[in-house]
Amino acid sequence: MISEIFNEFALWQINALVITLGLVFSTIGIVVVDRFYTIFHLRENNHVGGFKFEFLEPFFLSFLLLPLTLSWVDYNDLNRNVGLEGSSLIFLKNIAAVFDEPVAVDLKDAIDRYATAVTVDEWRTMEQGKESKKAADALQVLVLRYGQVQPRTAHQREMLKTSASVLGHVVKYRGYRLAAAIHPNGLLVSGGLVISVILTIALGWVFALPTLLTKVALQALLVVAMMCCVFFVLTLSFPFKGDLYIPPHPFLRVLN
Amino acid sequence: METLYSLAELPLHVIAIIFISLGIGLSTIGVLLVNNYVVTAQLIENNFVAGFKFTYLAQVFTGILAFVLIEQSARYSNASAYVNNELNAIGYFDQAMAGLSGPEAEDVRKAVRAYVKSVVDDEFPAMARGNESVESSRKFKDMFAAYAKIAPIDARESAIIFSANQMLMRVSDNRTGRLSAASGRLQALLWTTIFVGLFASIAWNWFFGSNNLVAQLVMGSLLTTANVMTVYYLFIAAFPFIGELGIGPEGWKEFLDLPYP
After folding, report:
1. Which of A87, A249, A253 should we substitute to test contact with B (largest number of B Cβ atoms within 10 Å)?
2. Is A161 on the interface with B (CB under 8 A)?
3. C-alpha distances in angstroms, A95 versus A125, A160, B230?
4. CB-based contact (8 Å) between A48 and chain B?
5. Phi-psi region of B154 (alpha: psi -120 to 50; beta: other; left: phi over 0)
6. pLDDT per 10-residue tile (average), chain B, 261 residues
7. Residue B56 in contact with partner chain A when CB distance is under 8 A
8. I need a labelling partner for A59 at 20 to 30 A (CA). Which of A84, A121, B3, B196 fits?
9. Torsion of the alpha carbons at A194, A197, A202 and A206, rounded to the nearest 10
10. Interchain contact B173–A (C-beta under 8 A)
């Protein structure tokens, strides 16, 4: 359900939604606690609550940095591997012209079919964390076609060797791409981040400050900063959804 | 994002002055405004609780800054490595083509120069804005098309072609890495998060109270300067192809100045 939100709304809207949820949770808690407890009761909490609040600092930081690091690395690796896979396919398509006419046409056709299958089908299945059977079959056909090539000249033999090496890169980068799509590391540990945010907000309710407005405003500043971090991690955890999705442009360039 | 790019193009000392001035200005104006509307005694009562929460915010903000600073520095180093590695590979590739006979090899060398010129004229300015150049992509493809027409005539030329293939693959991979490093897809999200954290850390000072307003203003300014300078270093590293410390096409221009043929 969370992932579908990225397709429905713009990035700034999701950011506003995440921040608003945090602010509403924080403000409602403060108002409710203030209704039942006077400032004199809450003032006794300030000392002990303050120390416990300090305990939550490294707790939150650990749960923030872990998914942030994983998501960031996954997103950037995915972006780079998509580009490398696309450029390897372009390389193969360009040097396929070295071979005799029907062979060159067959090879280019197989490359185009694979690029099309990835763009049209696999980009959609990667959103659900799966690979596409069509793309897997198209890659198998591509590998078979290269296996059937009979080089006629020494030059074609050299180019075939190079093509085999580049094809190996295509398979390797595809593997990395699917691994990042199928196992989104960041999302797995984001649960700890959300729990630590909830605990921090809830602990903020028990402090005493001179006025309700001051208490709400101070808490709001902290909540906005924390929810921006949560939003950052969430956005990176869905690399194929929303405004910051990784596009299949490198594969479209193969077809152009 | 265009505002950030334009800011990054300014001289380093000007960017530092802008950052520090804005930060101290925001901190000072906020403290004076709050002190104008709220009694000092009431603000002093905030100090205890606000102090604890401020420590919390400091940890969060510092953690994010440290992480992003390391990542952006790595991005800058990687971008520099990709640019240099691609140029080296192009140089070796060009020398390999010089070892071949026939007009096809000459066509490849001309295509190499056309590609390098396009990268200097079109792609470096595009990378400064987080984009790639369509014209450079076209010239890159033309280079391949010209290379595919070469047919080695003997074993020596076959060996040269084998080496040239490796160089061309390296050019392709490093070009992809260079464009990936220049890509600004995450920058808007990143800078929103950082500026929100920076604003929160500056605005927090407004809630503290002190009988000595000057002391409070000085403390707020010093703290703000420390925060702002960290964000300043981060800002410089975040745009590897812009500004005084930006990675430029000097090496690529030197390649074009080499005597040819």
Report:
1. A87
2. yes
3. 30, 9, 48
4. no
5. beta
6. 85 92 93 88 83 85 86 88 95 93 92 96 92 91 88 86 90 90 80 88 88 88 90 88 89 87 62
7. yes
8. B196
9. 170
10. yes
Q: Which of A159, A163, A232, A249 to mutate to test the interface with B (most CBs of B within 10 A)?
A: A232
Residues B153 and B160 sit within 8 Å (Cβ to Cβ): no
Tally of CB atoms within 10 A around A114: 27
In sequence order, what DSSP letters do the residues of B164-219 get, joined into one string?
A: HHHHHHHHHHHHHHHHHHH--TTHHHHHHHHHHHHHHHHHHGGG---S-HHHHHHH
Res A226: pLDDT: 87
Question: Shortest CB distance from B179 goes to which of A83, A207, A236?
Answer: A83
Mean pLDDT throughout A94-103? 88
Query: What is the pLDDT confidence band of residue A114, given thresholds at 50, 70 and 90?
Result: very high
Q: Which of A87, A153, A209 sits opposite B172 (nearest CB)?
A: A87
End-to-end CA distance of chain A: 35
Phi, psi torsion values for B85, nearest 5 degrees = -65, -40
Determine which helix (DSSP H) or strand (DSSP E) holds B21, and give its type and residue range: helix B12-37
Q: Which residues of B touch A207 (CB under 8 A)?
A: 49, 52
Q: Across the interface, which of B51, B60, B190 has its CB nearest the CB of A61?
A: B60
- A218 contacts in B (CB within 8 Å)? 46, 49-50, 53, 204, 207
| Segment A83-94 mean pLDDT | 91
* Distance (Å, whole) CA A139 – CA A124: 17
pLDDT per residue over A201-249, tens digit each? 998 888 888 888 888 988 998 899 888 888 888 888 788 877 788 889 8
Is the pLDDT assigned to residue A172 strictly greater than 70?
yes
Most B CBs within 10 Å, among A54, A57, A66, A166, to test the B interface: A57
Chain B hits for A88, CB-CB cut-off 8 Å, are: 172
* The pLDDT value given to residue A1: 57
- Backbone φ/ψ region at B153: left (φ over 0), alpha (ψ -120 to 50), beta: alpha
Which of A92, A113, A110 is CA-nearest to residue A102? A110
What crossing angle do the helices spanning B103-118 and B40-98 adopt, rounded to 10°? 170
What confidence tier does A197 reach under pLDDT thresholds 50, 70, 90?
confident
3-state percent breakdown (helix, strand, coil) of chain A, nearest 5: 85, 0, 15
Give the C-alpha separation, B75 to B81, whole Å: 10
Across the interface, of B49, B176, B197, the residue whose CB is closest to A87 is B176
- When CB atoms are compared, the residue of B53, B148, B150 closest to A94 is B148
